[in-house]
Design goal:
Layout: E1 5-9, H1 13-25, E2 29-33, H2 36-45, E3 50-54, H3 62-70, E4 78-82, H4 87-95, E5 100-103, H5 108-172, H6 177-201, E6 208-210, H7 211-225, E7 233-239, E8 243-245, H8 246-266, E9 273-282, E10 285-292, H9 308-319, E11 324-326, E12 334-340
Parallel strand pairs: 1-2, 1-3, 3-4, 4-5, 7-9
Antiparallel strand pairs: 6-8, 9-10, 10-12, 11-12
Length: 341
């Protein structure tokens, strides 16, 4: 690579002069050092694109000089030069960090070999620097995108919280029981979605959600919404740490909200009771179970209320390319959802 600055280290005065003239004719800028100590000192000052080191030198030999140069901060690549075609010397040099090696020969062939080696090593170093710069830029770009996405999730969560609060105000001003109940159900659905975004902006991973953490927070909010009921419902979560993609977590959260809400409303008429939410992972699937020990549901029974909850469950399950299945052998209601993770 013409214009590159080369440091050539060799104790042979005549060879240093020959190499300097030959490489200068080939377009390189050449500086020379007569010993390993001098060469290491010059390399430490910087400004060299490549260093060539002779193997046989008094004082610091070639391998010791190579070790000292490669230990420098941001060292230039080193081409190792040996006067004999000994495989063990070349192997030792390459293991010690040399980028290439050249065997001395008589005549211009040596200078051609040296120049060709320099060109290859300099091209490789340039490509490695370009790769490192591209990777650094990619990491910086990813960090910026993650920060932006975290901010978006933060704002979405805050906006959904504001919408939920506005619905709560409107619900509080209404006297109509069914309308108030419908608004309360809407609040629960909004909270289920907001909880996902809240998880995302407080976590390092913006692509996946830990279902155990997410459902734990969601069940806590659902439990609070039913805590003032005269007939309290106990919500119990048993979950393995299963991670799912963000969009799947939203759909799962809405399904859990609807199933738990239905159980709290209809499973235990006139009495309190427990609703269990169980999450396991098996055969590449997340298995979600919502069950109660209540009055159960007759085969073919139509949904109580407006039926919107049942429609939402079907729609969210379809978005997950699955369906909610009900266990007819269970004494109460047991709903099971299997989702690919």
């Amino acid at each position: 690579m013409e214009g590159a600055r080369i440091l050539y280290i060799d104790d042979d005065d005549a060879l240093r002069r020959l190499v300097s003239r030959a490489l200068t004719r080939r377009g390189y800028g050449v500086a020379a050092a007569a010993s390993g100590d001098e060469g290491v000192a010059m390399a430490a000052e910087g400004g060299f694109d490549l260093v060539a080191v002779d193997h046989y030198m008094p004082g610091l030999d070639g391998l010791e000089t190579l070790a000292a140069i490669t230990a420098l901060p941001d060292p230039p690549p080193v081409v190792y030069v040996t006067g004999s075609d000994e495989g063990r010397v070349a192997v030792a040099a390459l293991k010690a960090g040399a980028a290439d090696y050249v065997v001395k020969t008589v005549g211009d062939d040596f200078f051609d070999l040296l120049s060709a080696s320099f060109a290859q090593v300099l091209d490789r170093a340039r490509l490695e620097r370009a790769k490192a710069a591209a990777e650094a830029e990619l990491r910086a770009s990813n960090a910026r995108l993650e920060a932006m996405l975290s901010e978006v999730n933060h704002r979405v969560a805050n906006s959904l919280q504001l919408v939920s609060a506005m619905i709560g105000l409107q619900r509080g001003a209404m006297a109509d029981g069914p309308a108030r109940e419908a608004l309360e159900d809407t609040q629960r659905r909004i909270r289920a979605i907001a909880q996902v975004h809240r998880r995302l902006y407080t976590a390092n991973d913006v692509e996946q959600v830990d279902l155990r953490d997410y459902l734990g927070a969601l069940i806590g909010e659902l439990g609070e919404s039913w805590s003032n009921d005269m007939l309290p419902r106990t919500l119990r979560l048993v979950a393995e740490p299963v991670r799912v993609k963000t969009d799947r977590a939203v759909s799962i959260g809405v399904i859990v909200t609807e199933l738990v809400t239905n159980a709290c409303k209809y499973a235990y008429p006139g009495r309190g009771g427990e609703v269990r939410i169980i999450v396991t992972e098996a055969d590449g699937h997340c298995v979600l179970t919502v069950e109660d020990d209540g009055c159960g549901m007759a085969e073919g029974q139509q949904p109580k209320g407006t039926g919107l909850g049942a429609k939402l469950i079907r729609a969210m399950a379809q978005s997950l390319q699955t369906a909610v299945e009900y266990d007819p052998a269970h004494s109460g209601v047991r709903a099971v959802l299997r989702v690919v993770v």
